[in-house]
Structures are given as structure tokens and as C-alpha cells.
Amino acid sequence: MARLRPYRLFWAGLAAVLLWAVFTAGTGWDPLGLLVVAAAALAGAWWAPTDLLRVSWRALPGFVLFFVDRSLRGGVDVAWRALRPTLPLEPQWVVRPLRLPPGGPRSLLVSVISLMPGTLCAELVDDELVVHALTPGLDGKLDDLEQHIARLYALRL
Amino acid sequence: MAAVVAWSLIAVGSGFFLAGTVGLLRFPGVFSRLHALTKADNVGLGLLVLGLAILAGSPWTALKLAVIWALALLAGTVSCHLIARYALREQGGRERAEP
Asked: Are residues A148 and A72 in the same domain?
């Protein structure tokens, strides 16, 4: 029953209470509501991938700011390319060695790459990433992303 | 004043959706199209949600909209990776797949 350890139940319960409060605008505390929250807390504690959550909370605001900034640029960049009559694209494959450890950091990297300007992660084999880039010269930007994720998980690359 | 800001955000957000769809139609190949959809729609939905949250005028509704955006973001980026991976394997890996 390691999955239902008290601290896991506590965090899953807190998340369930907060989500239920949001869904019901703070009014869902009848017996049925409490039952739903309890079930969600148990399910969360049982299935939640906790290694995604072992982040350093101090580094989180910086990461969120970085993410919002870059994903906005990514959207603007691709919208501009789509609307330009000349269609400025030079798509290519870029293979990158992976420096982040498996688990949370790696999953986060793969997910976030697709929202950064002009890059998209197509494959992860052993310790290599296959990235699809819309134009050349976007790799350096992924170094920044790796650094930020390493900082978020308190790792040294 | 708040309404002007909100409707501007909604208008710009819709513009991003439109651009993403234009990209989906104009870009060559499945990978480039995925870029257009994932990134432009994520920004579009974010701006749309911001505008609607201002119009809603209730913090509960604003929070609910934020949760919707976060879930759509997660679903979008994960499915983007999975579709790209499937397409790459289908086309025989990066040595043979047209980028």
C-alpha cells in the first residue's frame, strides 16, 4: 500500500478539494460532493505520477515565466509563418543528446519542446531526442530549456 | 474599460486560432502542420481564456477557465508528440521521413 502513504493522500486530497471547489464555485460540500472528493483523492494518490512533482518550489515561478514567454513567442512565430505569403519554412530533423535523467525531467522536456518556438519532439530513443525544427538554428534555444528544467528539479547538467 | 481589454484579448486569441488553421492548410507535411496547430492554438486559447475570465467577473469562473486552459495545453502538447512519433515511425524513421 505504498501508493496510499499519508503524504500522497494529503497532496491528492488537497488537489481534489481545490479542484472540486473550482468546479462547483465553492458550493459543492453536500454528502455527494464529499464522496466525490474522497474518491478523487484516493484515485489521485493511487495513480498520480509523483516524480513529475518533485520540483523545487523556489524555481517554479522562474520556470513558469520562462515557459509563458517562450510559448507566446512560439505561437506568434508560427502564426507569422503561416500568414506570410512566402511561407518561410526550412523544416529539418535535429538529433540532440539527452542530458536530463528519465522520469519527470525528461517527460517535461518532451512535452514543453513542442510549445517552444519552431521545435517539436518526434522521438526519444535511448539517450537521443529527435526534434523537428521549422528553421535551422533553433537548437541553442533548447539548451536554455534544458537548463531551466534542470534548475526546476534541482539538478546539475 | 475592462470590457474593451477583454474583447481585444478574445479578438487576438481568435486571430491565433485562424492563423493556426491557415498553417494547418498551407504547411507541407504532417510535422510542420503539427507546429501550427499546437503552438498557435495554445496561445489562442490562452488569450481567449484571459478575455473570458475578465468578462466573467467571478474568481471561481476565472479559475475554472484556467483549469480548462491547462488541461487543453497538456492534451495538446502530449498528443502533438504522439502524432509526430507515430508519423515518424510510419515513414521509416528520420533517415527516410521528409521533415
From this structure: yes
- The DSSP secondary structure of A90-113, one letter per residue, reads --EEEEEE--SPTTHHHHHHHHHH
Q: Between chains, do B31 and A87 touch, taking CB under 8 Å as contact?
A: no
A146 and A84 share a domain? yes
The answer on A82 and A33 residing in a single domain is: no
C-alpha span between B43 and A5 (Å, rounded): 38
Which chain B residue lies closest to A76 (C-alpha atoms)? B40
Taking an 8 Å cut-off on Cβ atoms, the answer to whether B60 and A132 are in contact is no
The pTM is what? 0.90
- The answer to whether residue A73 sits within a structural domain is yes
Q: pLDDT tens digits, residue range B45-97?
A: 999 999 999 999 899 999 999 999 999 999 999 999 999 999 999 999 999 99
Which of B26, B31, B35, B58 is the best residue to mutate to test the A interface, defined by the most A CB atoms within 10 Å of its own CB? B35
Do A123 and A138 lie in a common domain? yes
